[in-house]
Amino acid sequence: MPKKSGIPQPIPYQGSKRQIAPTILRHFPSHVLRLVEPFGGSAALSIAAAVRGGADQFWINDGHAPLIKLWEEIINRPQGLADTYAYLWNDQLGQERQYFNMVRHRFNEHHAPADFLYLLARCVKAAIRYNAKGEFNNTPDNRRSGAQPLEMRWRIARASGLLRNRTRLTSWDYKKVLNNCTTDDLVYMDPPYQGVCERRDQRYLPKINHDEFCDELATLNNRNIMFAVSYDGRTGTKTYGKELPSALQLTRLDICAGRSTQATLLGRTDMTYESLYLSPVLALATTQVPHSDMPQQIALL
After folding, report:
1. pLDDT in tens, 278-297
2. How far apart are the C-alpha atoms of 58 and 14, rounded to whole Å?
3. How confident is the model over 47-75, as pLDDT tens digits?
4. pTM across the whole model
5. What's the CA gap between 45 and 276, in Å, rounded?
6. Measured between alpha carbons, how far is 124 from 199 in angstroms, rounded to an integer?
7. Please, what sign has the CA dihedral across residues 280, 285, 286, 288?
8. Cα separation of 30 and 200, whole Å?
């Protein structure tokens, strides 16, 4: 296995904050007792914080149980998962499309974590999509075969080493997670329904009611719990997602997430900016430490 350093990302995932996670972390205290992700997904913030040494403990939650089962394998049984992934990846060669369909059918029957990882590595846009029957129905990206076994083995082993023995894994409703957080926690939330997901959605999670979500944030404020939320944003002159209300007294930051994929396909240079909201107690904590290396693409609105 090649020796590498850096931030591993074992789970390919549409909408992952992997690229901007280090930037987001610049707005967190240098160290917290526990980092909580109620909408865990690929846990990009937790992994980046673990690399930086920014938290003692982690809590990764996601409403999609197969995703949490995959995290259990990554963290607690990395070698077995990497071995099975390598077998699937090599076994597909020469019959990639048919093999994907076979694994997809098997996953829909048994929800095996290694099958799920293979599907995410191969499917279009690394997006989890289900049909009305609750069956995974995304199609393979025929331009690529997924991360090669040695690369995936490194990602899995590195993530396991960073998170093992200090990570809680649950598949709860996000409200239950927030209710169990304390003032020792920093909560990072990246709800999965904003932007284009406001339209007809084939994803695995139900839409989250905006007003109910805002009520939960107000409750966190009242409990003096530090939190940050990635919520709305813009590409060029087009905005997506609802802004969080001013009554919550959040500090809003505009973070450049790079060139829009759609704009690139159309030959344009539109940049995507994502909003990051900091709770009052978090904003107060982070203003105590100056960030001299703050990149220019971040602007306080």
Report:
1. 999 999 998 754 443 433 33
2. 22
3. 999 999 999 999 999 999 999 999 999 99
4. 0.89
5. 13
6. 19
7. positive
8. 40
